Structure prediction request, 59 residues.
Amino acid sequence: MGALLWLLIPLTAGIAVGVRAWDTGRRNPSPPDHDTWEDLDRYQRLRTVLSADEHCEAV
Prediction:
């Protein structure tokens, strides 16, 4: 009987973690962001600024 009580501890912990994860989950997820071109433009501008900054420091 003592060995079965040791199995009760991980079972209880697992159930508690599952309830906590379910409780803190997102209730109303937002729609996915499909503006890939704007993200790409932002990334390209960032790369341009960073590469220009590196060239200025090297000179």
Observations:
- The mean pLDDT is 80.
